[in-house]
Amino acid sequence: MAESLDYGAFMEKFTLQPSLSPLGHHQLPLSGLTFAVKDIFDVEGYVTGFGNPDWARTHSAATSTAPAVLDILRAGATCVGKTIMDEMAYCIYGENKHYGTPRNPCVPDRVPGGSSSGSAVAVGAMLVDFSLGTDTGASVRLPASYCGILGFRPSHDAVSTVGVLPLAQSFDTVGWFARNPVILNRVGRVLLHLHDMDPIRPSQIIIPEDCFRLSSVPSERTAQVLVKSVEKLFGGQYVKHLTLGDYVKDKVPSLQHFMDKENEEQEYYIKSLAALSSAMRLLQRYEFKNNHAEWVTKVNPDLGPGISEQVWEAIRTKEENNDICNSVRIEFRAALTTLLGDHGILALPTAPGDPPLLQTDPATLEIFGVRAFSLLSIAGVSGFCQVSIPLGMHNNLPVSISLLAKHGSDAFLLNLVETLYDTLKEEIAMQENELDPVCF
Q1: Which of 116, 119, 139, 377 is catalytic?
Q2: What is the pTM of this model?
Q3: In this model, does residue 170 exceed pLDDT 90?
Q4: Which of 83, 266, 279, 405 could form a disulfide with 328 if both were Cys (CB 3.0 to 4.6 A apart)?
């Protein structure tokens, strides 16, 4: 019964009250709001479980609380517990064989997305006002998309990851979930230590046609909803169209090393972006090995299907091609910076299709994952900030779109979401008879 009430989102519940402030709680930016944290953040007095009982068994309680959590508490919010996550943060679907899979509040027979599964479900099910997660490869953006909520991955290194268990430090970020853009923005300003800034009109909104063709969701329900909203608010002159795969192939020559290994018959891939994903995942595996190989080989933890194979593949990874991977990162970030400029936006499908069914065959998930990371690696490799925005339901499944801005443009992107959100909802309402209140 308890699992039914909390959608299986929580590892453990407790209450951390807001820090005392001389201003009084009512003047703090997050006063009166509740939040939950992924079980990857240190909270003093609690074991950081990392999604796996063997990890929890072999580690002591944290002696301090992660600065990101402290920032939120000091801003007036109340923490109500820790949430379930994928084991060692090494999966994007949200299924955990030890602690159970948090139930997707939009579509209970589908995965909630991971690895920040419980944090996304807690927000989507209205159990908390917002939550903290982490995003290395996808772990805030994908669960946000699957659970029909907002999810923000900040610029890399913009929010402290001290007191957060690492997956791969070159890509690790602290992200957050919310149901509305006002709270998303307020949480972001606290975590990013931002002052209020007036909204800035975007210089361009780029629609990469090839990326939207990669998605099984019709572009009329994603890209065109955004385009019509932008036209209403800013004018059609701001919308640009591009084939991103060709641009990346031309501007990131180091990707050729990975493109040569791609299967030419896999027509549903964008080859340069699949190569970008390969470079990112190789560097992630090497960094995961550096972080966790000693513990994994010593403890030989009980890991779930799919995750076990990935973990041991990482442990066996040899230090090769790292220089090429780093060249890819430098070239790609420069290319994307040139493309977007100071206030340009790149629109993307957050995911290449609908949330997979629970207990989908791992081989099917592998194909889906390659397509997903072709989109998700764009922010990962560049270090740019990205937000996933829900666009209601299509065929009774949640739909979303992502906006990406250059590194350090987090305040601009958060403000833009607020500006766009109501107009996006109006566009969706024109296509649907009614909206699902849980998923939008």
Answers
A1: 139
A2: 0.96
A3: yes
A4: 279
